[in-house]
Structure formats: structure tokens, C-alpha cells
Amino acid sequence: MTAETLAPEAGAAPGDRRRRRLLGLAAAAAVLVVLVVLSLVFGSKPLPLGDVIEALGRDNGDPHVIVVEQRIPRTVLAIVVGLALAVAGALMQGLTRNPLADPGLLGVSAGAALGVVLVVWAAPAASDLAQVWAAFLGAVATACAVFLIGSMGGRGRSPVTLVLGGVAIGAVLQGIASTVVLLNQSAFVTMRSWQAGSVADLGWPAVATIAPFCAAGLVLAAVAARGLNATALGEDLATALGGNLWLTRIAVVGAVTLLCGSATAAVGVVWFLGMMVPHIARWITGPDQRWILAYSVLLGPSLMVAADVLGRVVVIPDEIPAGVVTAVIGAPVLIFMVRRKKASGL
Amino acid sequence: MLRVGGRASTRTLLRAFAVSAALAALTVLAAVIALGLGEMRISAVDVTRALLSDAGTAIETVVVQWRLPRVLLGVVFGAALGLSGAVFQSLTRNPLGSPDVIGFDSGAYTGAVMSIIAIGSTALVIPSALAGGIATALAVYLLAYRRGVHGFRLIVVGIAVTALLGSLNTYLLLKASLWQAQMAAVWGAGSLNGLDWSDARAGTLVVLALLVPLLWLGRRLRMLELGDDAAAAAGVAVEPVRLALVVVGVSLSAVVTALAGPIPFVALVAPQLARRITRAPGVQLVPAAVMGAFLLVTCDMVALNVPPQALPVGLMTIILGGAYLVWLLVAQSRKELR
């Protein structure tokens, strides 16, 4: 007995649905490709598409420097970060069955950020890799604490308790981080740009540092996906179906830690991306976690690249960091969701 | 049945009264100790003498002129935050609801940062922080309004707006000069440093003035806790009363933020600690206020005297909030294991 037979979709044969989903996946990939091209074309100095293509092949002066040394690395970083946060968000929503779950909202990013801040403060000479590991420590501790808070109140628990608990924990961690930064001038200078969630000027080193961890996180996410489908039926039923609840939980926490920790270590806290993408994915595919994850892998990078491009073009020649753009887009989306849905529907 | 209920509620009331009195005594004790601590140590006896007499000695100058305004503001602001938190937790029917969570503090911070960047000094921080905080709280209320305001919607909308303003603040600080950014960050840490008698007078007067409507609203607040329908049946005009409570709750927080910067988590923690000690079924105003006063005076005393370098009280209250959450987690996991 699978999830599909338990929740049959009216009017659509399974093969039909599968084809539609695959088509949607292809469309999402096409959107991402278009956005990547836009990301290479637009910026404080817009380049004609011809120059961009030429710059990819050979050294044609300014365009080559701009495209190859700046725009390509930042686009790749945006793709990796967007993917990591979207998959982390989808996993958290799947495990907690809470549509508001988001690495930023639930404080996991704040935990990772505190880890980074403490390393920068205590050992300014520490390598990027040390910062990433500190971010993992912070993320895993916060994720466990938040999931524990989320299980408060047993059966009749309200979805708000999880979110409020996460927000409160996040506020504590962020408060400690900002005090540490406040008491230390050099950390203040270093942390100021990092905190805003910008993908600019980080280049290939940042990508190279976090990409292996993100890949490992994706593998764990794929392992957890089937178990999450069972979890969605409720804990009792999941156990009855033979799913191993604890294995799923551990895989999810591990994946969220790797994905969210590395994204945060690279670009700081990015809000709402992890909340929005799984919603769009679920809206297209329905409740199957495997498909939601597959779509998130494509839609997350699209959203992050789009946010980065948008931040570059609205205030030329200045830039708005991508993290600020996602917050500005995400907050109204969250408000819309909570106004539209009945409280009990959440 | 009625008599049993009556006896039980009398017992609750007595317990609340006893707890409030004990906490008040502890607050006075903490205040006297705080008045004696500092570069010049003064014994409790001398502090009391300086407070009660009018001798005009050097000790009296130190205690009454220099240290008393800060300690008094600790008491008054702590009580204001405790009350503010109690109002919000009762309105949202959630133990984690508080004015900082629904966006007031971030709004105030945005206002403060904008004024610091615009004019390059902290001269206009108080009015702009107030404007920012109150505008944010109103915006959150209106955005959450849809045929009435649900506690749930209020909280989530508040969280969304807080996150939005938080990243806006980060961006503003990024654009500001390093010096302006640090000025804003210091204000944002929340501290009773540098407050004198004129601040103490102003702060105390405003908080006292806010107690008048709160006394009137307090009874209706309890009825709202029974549910909107029950409250309406008892003759409470639900939405106007709720709006009035939001305004009073935000104002209580706003006074504190205006004079001291945002002091987080007192509003969150005080009502819950008070509720647990009084073993009351719901949040109560008076114990929450006294608990808030005790917590803030104690936190400020520790922040000022214990670390080698005086810290803003905001950091102490953050640690307090963290400790409270950890305790909540531990208590919860114990309950689950049982």
C-alpha cells in the first residue's frame, strides 16, 4: 500500500500524472536556464547577450572579466545556496508537517550564524572550512532544540508553537551574535556585509568550500524522502506501515544541518526562501515528498538567482543583497498565506 | 459547585497576592543592593539611611542623585514590560506571544537606524523609534485583521514583518558609515546607561498614566480569555477592547524602548514565570508586573557589576530568555519521557 493508493487523485491516471510532473520539471529547468542567462547579462553594467557569449569563449576584455570572474561565480553560488535552502525547507516542512517551517524562521540559520560569528570572534585567522564546521554545530543544536519545542503539547499542538519557539530561539542566538559583534570592532566590520545575505564578491572559493557538504546533504535528503511520505500520514500510521520514524528524523536533521549550515556559512541568513519554494513545488506536484524535493532542487536556485538579479537591477549602480530581496518578497507571501488559510488548516 | 469554584479562585487569588508581595520584597532587596554596588561600595544600612533621610551627605548624592534613577527605571520598566507581555500573551492565548515577537522592537530599531543615518546623530532617536515601533505594531494589527484579529494570525504576521524589517535593518546598516552603524548597534543593544532623573520622572509618569486604562481593561482581558463569543455574551465589545489592549500593551513597551532601547525577552519571560509560581491557570497582570520589575533590576545589577566591562542589560535579558527556553525544553522532554 503506497501513499498514492491511499490518496487517489480524481480523474488522472497515474501515468498521465507522471508525464505532467516530468513536463513541469522540464519547464522548471528551462526557467532556471533563462534566469542564469539573465544573471550573466544584467548588473551594474548591462552587457549585450552577444558579448556575454563571446566572453565565455575567449578573452574579450571587460566583458570577459565581468562575466567570467564575477557573474559566473556569483550565479553558481546563488544556485548552490538556493538549492540548499529550498531542500532544507522542504525537508523541515515534510518532517514537522508545518507549512511555515523555514530554516530562517525556525532559527536554524541563526544557530549556524552564531557558530560562524563565534569562530570569527575567537579565531579571526580561522579558515573558511572552520567556519563551515562551526555553522554545522550551531545548526544541528538549534534544529534539535526546535524540533523538541515543536513536539510540545502532544496531539493538540498548534502549528504556531513550533514557529514561535523557533523564532524565540533564533532571537536569543541572534542577540548573542550581535552582542559579540558589537563588542569587537574587527568582527563588526567583517560581519556587516556577511549578515545581509549577499552572494557578490565571494567567488569560487566559497562555492568550493560548501559544494561537497551540499552534495552530501542532498544524498541524505534523497534517503529521507520516502520516509517523509510515510510520516505525512501521521506518526502512528507511519510506524504501522513499517517506516522507521527515527531513521527518517535523523536523516532529515543531518540533511538540514549540512544544507542550511553550509548556505549560512557562505552568505549569512537568508529568509523565507526555504518556506516559499516547497509551497510552489507542492502547488504544482501535490503532496508526494519525492516530487516536492525534485522540484525544490530546480525552483530554489531559480528563486535565489532571480532575487540576486533583481537586487542588482533595482538600484543601479548600487546593489541590494539577495537575502534582503527574498525577505521583502517572502514576508508578503507569508502574510498572504496566513490570511487566506483557516487557522485550523495549518 | 459554585462555592467550590469560589473557594478555588479565592485560593488562587491569595496565592497570587502572596507571590506578588514576596516578589515585591525581593525587588526592594535587589534595588537596595544595586544602589550600594558600584565604584563606591555602600552598605545596605547606609543606603537605607540615605534614601529615608535628607542629610545632604556625599553618600546621599551618590545613592539618590546618581544611582537611584537607574534602579527606579529598572523597576518601572521591568513592570511595564511584564505587563505588556502579560497583555499580549493573554490576547494571543500563547505563552510565547510578546510585543517583541510581533515586530514592535524591529520597527523601533528601523526608526532609530533611519534617523541616525539621516541626521548623523542620536538626537532624534526617541521620536523616530517610537514612530517606527508604533507604525509597525499598527501595520501588523491591520494586516492580521480579517473579520477580527486572531491571536494566531497576529503572531505569524508579526513574525513576517519582523523578518522583513530585520533584513531591512541589516541592509541600512550596510549602507551607513561604520561609525553610524556602530552607534545604531549600541542603541539596539538596550541599556539603562546614562539615564538620569529627568528620564526617570518622564518614564515613571508615562507608565503610571498607562496603568489607568489598563485597570479598566484588565477585567475585560480576562473575559476575552474565555473566548470571543463568551466575552461578547458578557457584554464586552470584543474588537474595540482588543484594539485598546494592543495599543496599551504596545505603549508600555514603547516607553521602555524609547528611553533605553529594545530590552528583549523580559516581556516574554516575566508573565510565564509569574504564572508558574502562582500556579494560576492563566496569565495575571500584577504578578507579571512585579516579576518583570524583579528580573530587570537584577539583570541590570548583574550586567553592570559582574563582568569586567559593564554590558548592556539587553544582553543579560537575552541570556535570561535563552535560559528560560532551555528550561522549557528540558521540562518538556521530561514530561515526554514519563
How would you sum up this structure, described in words?
The complex is a heterodimer of chains A (346) and B (338). Chain A is mainly alpha-helical. Chain A is 76% helix and 0% strand. Chain A is built from 14 helices and no strands. Chain A has helices at 3-6, 14-41, 49-57, 62-96, 108-122, 128-150, 159-182, 185-194, 203-231, 235-240, 245-267, 273-285, 289-313, 322-340. Residues 1-11 of chain A have low confidence and may be disordered. Chain B is an all-alpha fold and 338 residues long. Chain B is built from 13 helices and no strands. Chain B has helices at 2-36, 44-52, 58-92, 104-119, 125-144, 151-175, 178-188, 197-225, 228-233, 238-260, 266-278, 285-305, 313-337. In chain B, helix 8 (197-225) runs antiparallel to helix 10 (238-260) and helix 12 (285-305) crosses helix 13. The longest helix of chain B has 35 residues, at 2-36. At the A-B interface, helix 6, helix 7, helix 8 and helix 14 of A face helix 6, helix 7 and helix 13 of B.
Properties at a glance:
heterodimer; A: 346 residues; mainly alpha; 14 helices; B: 338 residues; 13 helices; 79% helix; 0% strand; ABC_BtuC-like (chain A); transmembrane (chain A); cell membrane (chain A)
